[in-house]
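Re: that chain you flagged

S.,

Sorry for the slow reply, it's been a week of failed gels. I finally had a moment to sit down with the sequence you sent. For the record, here it is as I used it:
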Amino acid sequence: MVGFALACGGTAPTAPAPVAAVVLFDEGCRTDGLGATVVGRLEVDLTNRTGDPARFDLIRLNDGHSYDELVAVVAEDNRRVEQGESTVGPWAFATLLQITLIDAGADQRLEAQLIPGTYTVVCIRATATPRSVRIATGPFRIH
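Prediction finished late last night. Pasting the structure tokens below so you have them in one place:
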């Protein structure tokens, strides 16, 4: 019996890391747990709680650029969509890594191995009218 106690070392099993979440509601997009992202590995449950299809874009901000720049471009793109104009997107200072399409009321897990940097998820809700609502969430850092 003593040999067994020494072999165990008295360490308790570790709990799995919590999975982060990005949830799109009619009122906006919310993140939970992205600050606790495991180094290099991203696991996020993407959930669409609207009555419309949605798109979730995983984006890495290029070095030297800020989240505020992304927020400004998302606001400008929303204005352009309202006016029936083409969008510009943040591609001058950010890299689109993955697009996830999710039906109304559905969810899906996003898993990615990421290099160190600053990331965000942009929620894009396709509405019944010919416009989309874009909402930037984040930012979060991978170390």
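What I noticed first: The two ends are 43 Å apart (CA to CA).

Talk soon,
D.
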